[in-house]
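This part of the workshop introduces the protein records we will be handling. A record pairs a protein's sequence with a compact description of its fold. Comparing a sequence with its tokens is the quickest way to learn the format. To make this concrete, we reproduce a full record directly below:
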Amino acid sequence: VRGKRYFAVGFPNMAGGYEVRSRYFKGCIPPKSVSLVKANDIPADECLVFEGFMDFLSAVTLGVTGNADCLVLNSVANVEKAAGLLNGYGRIGCFLDRDEAGRRTLAALTMRYGERVSDRSSLYDGCKDLNEYLQLTTKKQKNNHLKIEEQ
């Protein structure tokens, strides 16, 4: 762009578009849609729901995804696009942001799926989202490691 090179990570969605992130840019190469990441070839009983792919990648890093399929909304505005995809799951675990938009999305999913929906945000209580929790956890681990080396 104008003689400069830029780079970003692209995360594909189900409509052929990409969510694109870098240190300086957050956007989408249309069309915008959800992303479904299957854990195995066989159908899973549980699907974990994330607002964005950075939260999904944080969950993978933290090892909380297990054998569940994962649905990344790529925007809370895509909750209706997610609806049909979640129909076949017995359990739906939500790792949504701890803000008004996250609460509205959780309420919408709970209204549609009832007791199958569980709020998993207590894992990152005190943080805005799972990615912030991972960053704080990583920082604490580094600080603890440095303290041990100093002793």
